[in-house]
Amino acid sequence: MKFPISIIIxxxxxxxxxxxxxxxxxxxxxxxxxxxxxxxxxxxxxxRSVNIVEKYCLKDNRIRLLSLDKRYGKGRSLLHAIKICKNxxxxxxxxxxxxxxxxxxxxxxxxxxxxxxxGSRIMRNGLKPIQRPFIRSCLSKLYTLCFSCLxxxxxxxxxxxxxxxxRDLVLPIxxxxxxxxFAFDTEFLVKSFLHGLSIKEVPINWHHENNSxxxxxxxxxxxxxxxxxxxxxxxxxQITNKSIPSKYFAAKPVTIIKCIRKLNTKVSEVxxxxxxxxx
Length: 279
What we know:
alpha/beta, Spore Coat Polysaccharide Biosynthesis Protein SpsA, Chain A, seven-stranded mixed beta sheet, 9 helices, 7 strands
């Protein structure tokens, strides 16, 4: 049976590497015999990217273009694309092909047992070590440290833009995601865990792309703000949303938050009884 997959590619002004990336993705999907569709979501491109994708759409109806009305950011672009996917499994990757689409095979091995399978640049398990610029490597390690201090999730690499998940389980979650930028992956994972989805992290082959558009100084500021927002928002949800079992609490300190929620529940019960007695 052919593996059904919708592959999302978020782009913004990628005319220089778009054709090479699309050719490789299409070739890989056909060689592997997947039942696939490719959704290119463009986030307000101002170069020739849209024209290039439109030509591919005319040649192959398995390629679809989603044009957004304004600049939303990578995270929000992905959420818009998820809503229109047709296949039961959804994956996304970057057009620079830092991770080759063939790496989806590593994730597909686990998608029957888990709700979400994510690629990891940090876990190796026998794969070649990844070479990255010193500053990028330091930034990644700092972010991972911050994540492990704030969240109780055993995930090494939250920010790897190479993930595979089940459409029907993720659709109810996407409306709760607030971050649009690069920390989107973090909130996506945290919210998925909160909703009880099982997550598997798998090492993948990955290479650093020198033409990456990430601006280090801006990224540090934005991602620091975003991860704190995600943490605070998650704490509030854990305290106030009684439908979420405590075993799915993601934000630390878990034990203290459990106590606060119990106290909050007791207070609500007392108020309810007081109101009944007054009437």
